[in-house]
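SUBJECT: protein chain
CONTENTS: sequence, structure tokens:
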Amino acid sequence: MKITEYNIYYELPPKPGENKKEEKAQSGFDWMQSIVLAITVLFFVFTFFIRPVEVVGDSMLPTLQDGNWLLISAFDRSPKQGDIVIITQPVETESGEPIVKRVIALGGQTVDIDFQKGVVTVDGKALDEPYVKELTKRKLDVSFPLTVPEGTIFVMGDNRNRSLDSRSNRIGFIDDRYVLGHVLLRVKPFGNPQYVNYSQEE
């Protein structure tokens, strides 16, 4: 007679508290995965889509103040009339840092400024500019009217009489390729995020 031997294994019941330890360990691992994923997503977003920048100077008063922090879109770099943009074009500024200005006209548009009345016109239409601190009375060394070359933009600060901008040959027309991005929100002062662009489109 042939005898076959069978080994029978019994699963022992878990020791008291063992399941809880495993659940805690798994929970901690899940939390770590979530944190790493969140950091990775934030890094990707802030590298390729949205960037924080700090305002330096008072050329954009009253819209922006020195020390404000902004979120800018680094993905869509095609400026529109009325956008506030961050410019990296090498210009003769005191700090040599990127500058923040508002887009007044795009390539192909004609800009004129009546410095007596302080009125800015683009393609013969006076701009509605509730954002300016004062009327545009300061004339620099650029002559008007002028047509903005294709591939560039004409910019000015909202603090018109205290801003070095495209009215000066030191700044001039801004090449589109040097627009780092347009401003989405002012996030500092904290707790009061504010949309600061102003479209001239009807």
